[in-house]
Amino acid sequence: MKRSYFSEIAPIKYEGPESINPLAYRYYDKSRVVMGKTMEQQLRMAVCYWHSFNWDGFDVFGAGTFRRPWHGGALDQQAAEHKLDEAFEFFTRLGLPYFCFHDVDVMARADSISEHVSNLKRIVDKMEAKIAATGVKVLWGTANLFSHPRYMAGGATNPDPDVFRFAATQVRHCLEATQQLRGENYVLWGGREGYDTLLNTNLRQEKNQLGRFLTMVVDHKHKIGFKGLILVEPKPHEPTKHQYDFDVDTIYGFLKHHGLEKEVKVNIESNHATLSGHSFEHEIAMAVDYGIFGSIDMNRGDPQNGWDTDQFPNDLREITLALYYILKAGGFTSGGNNFDAKVRRQSVDPVDLFHGHIGAVDVLARGLLSAAAMLEGGEISAFVEKRYSGWQRPEARDMLEGRTTLAKIADDAVAANVSPTPHSGRQEYLENVVSRYIT
Fold first, then answer.
1. SS3 category, 299
2. Where in the sequence numbering do the catalytic residues fall?
3. Is 90 exceeded by the pLDDT of residue 33?
4. pTM, full prediction
5. Fewer Cβ within 10 Å of end Cβ, the chain: N or C?
């Protein structure tokens, strides 16, 4: 049997907080129960296929640095199957339950639309056998509508209707492939659904195209009986100057406009949240409030870089707050934490892929424990409830629920000689509470 690229790495096991083994989990004990579910069930972690197995380390200033055995040469069926074998070797050694993929991540290169369809089908049949043999599952699939030059002006929003048709073909077959693989969600990631300059852009036309495209995806989901969620990923101003899917708020307004707010949810990426000028937990809380929270792309950016650097997460405080709001909302349903992250260009050895994932897995496990303790402690929830308790008074509920008018509110305020007294927001106290729970 052919020797795997990862043969030197033993399966990663939980060894506890005292372990100094860099190839062991110190906090991720997948069977440990946290708030009624195991860690594995609460976190639902996934490996992304693209950064882990497609990216060869290139950037805009230089060629790839990794030289992995499946890199280089023609991306034919044999190469695609080699990459698939190595991917599942990695998944099983890492011991996480899920992976995520784009169509072009897994398949042989296609030079025509018909070849794209047939090449995807060939590799999906191989993937199905791998899933059956290993038990590793698909968290979500998605079509790549941004890398090929045909998509330089977008996929669904492209001014050329033939590009729209090509994009529709990719999504139709990738959604059906995800269903065949029993994937639990399907993501639409609009990498270039936006514009670089208004001078050549018809905004209304492009947004109508995007709305129609998404509506057809939802219709096809129901036609084929796909039971998973359809997710849209917020992504701000990168690579285009302005993205139509900028943040959670923008997407919710778009979904409402097209009557899709009950059909589509969001897949929130940490690095995209911060690039939009928000915190990660803000985007999660907004999605929860709108009822469209679905899943997470877990990574981090570099504030000194200002680009989508897709680094593995290591900020325990940020992760704790993110998981706090997820747990507070009841946790994941079909979504989870996909590590949309990549090792750095100088991390060229097979073991570096493990180090990146192990550290990220452990920081999520620690964050889960801290978030659960903070939720069970209740100080933050109790403070927020008390802060807004005045809105439970009858006259306040009348204002909020439409049983009064602006004039009556004003007249009553004068008659009662309303004189509000400022109350402290206690920000420093609450930040200290968070610090106390971080383990």
1. coil
2. 102, 105
3. yes
4. 0.96
5. N
